[in-house]
Write a structure and sequence with these properties.
Layout: H1 2-41, H2 49-55, E1 61-70, H3 73-79, E2 85-95, E3 101-106, E4 110-117, E5 119-121, E6 133-137, H4 139-147, H5 151-163, E7 169-173, H6 174-179, E8 181-182, H7 184-188, E9 197-198, E10 207-215, E11 227-230, E12 264-268, E13 273-285, E14 288-294, E15 328-329, E16 339-342, H8 364-367, E17 370-373, E18 380-393, E19 409-421, H9 424-471
Antiparallel strand pairs: 1-2, 1-19, 2-5, 3-4, 4-10, 6-7, 8-9, 10-11, 12-13, 13-14, 14-17, 15-16, 16-18, 17-18, 18-19
Helix pairs in contact: 1-9
Amino acid sequence: MGCGRNCGLLTGAVLGALLAIFGGVLIPVGNHFIEKTVKKETVIENGTIAYENWIVPGSPVYRQFWIFDVQNPEEVIANGSRPVLKEKGPYTYRIRYLPKENITQHNDSTVSFFQPNIVLFEPDMSVGPENDTLTVVNLAVVAVPALYPSTFVQTVVDIWIRSSKSQLVQRRTVKELLWGYEDPFLKKIPFPGIEKVVGVFLPYNETLDGLYTVYTGKDDSGKTAIIESYKNKSTLGFWPSYCDMVNGTDGSSFPPFVKKDTTLQFFSSDICRSIYGNFDSEQSVKEIPLYRFIVPSAAFASPLVTPGNICFCTNKELSQNCTLAGALDISSCKEGKPVVITLPHFLYASEEIAQGVEGLYPKLKEHMTFLDVEPTTGFTLHFAKRLQINLLVKPSQKITPLKKLEQPFLFPVLWLNETAMIDDKKAEFFRTNVTNKIKFLHLLEAVLIAVGSVLFLSCMVSYIVCKTQKKK
């Protein structure tokens, strides 16, 4: 009788030990299975989960615009007063809803494509129609000193500016400002070859961005979606040294198995440079655990704070000999036009950068850029890419609308938020095929180890107690 009980306890202990061992063995085996499956499904090739969402985003991508409306145009025109600005928006467009074009596979290791640039206005997601009219900076007039530095040429150009009655600010519809309009001053220039139409995003709509060549991840999952070349080059030709390199992915996905200490690098043709994100916090979107990576203030800091930013400082006048933060002169990739990129409302920028205008109020949560990445697959399931487009306005004694200005300043035109979030259907698919399976496997491992350990310990303790009592 006693032997039977003791044997039962020993059997229970052995069974518990086996369960615990099996649970422990399941950890590396399960991780290997997960790793193998993820590596297979994140490869950019026909038939994988990644490929379907790579061809065209599985969730709608929107680009929202907030336009800076000048509240004191008379004072700005008459006295060169500081513009008082008030944002109006969002005006929302859907983008990236067309599939990639000219997709060409190269020896399984890389694939090339063009990204169609297309916009579709979304009136239900906007504060007004595209024909809303606002008072904004005159794109053509303020570009003259940068495009024509010769005083003689400026004197001649001023004849056409005055005859067209162009001023420092103008009235334009949202559609005209964004996608293009025929400028009255440029229209008067009699020389051929002078483009008469200007716009903040001209040309953009119905154009192609690329050629991009990216790694498929089939040979090396650590390179999945990383850009091998852009327009057949690994450099841009806009910046000196390492700042000119095309680094990382396009931001829509990253190589799988993202860690919190990973620095996510991504390239944006909008700002003509590569940039990076650092881990900020854990997030959850539609019951899917995500890692939030944000573009830190260090990415826009002065070279005095972040020495690596020195090669992005190409405008010594704007940056006061590279001592200021938060403004990126991208005129070299905008055909010499005085375009300067900042974060919305001059977030992270030095005070001197924002002194030329009034009415901007940076807020970290509203104006920062972030990417919410599912760490196992590397897929970006929620993101907000935010930036502000400004024009560098310089005084000129030869250009009538610019004569009364006292010093150069940044004139904000608009800020945008390009954003997307995984939709309900895709979230359900992702939970079913990725998140829940991983959770179940880890739960099974934990249950087996816990139950096995408790069974082993309880049986062993009972066995020892029984043996002790029998001896007594």
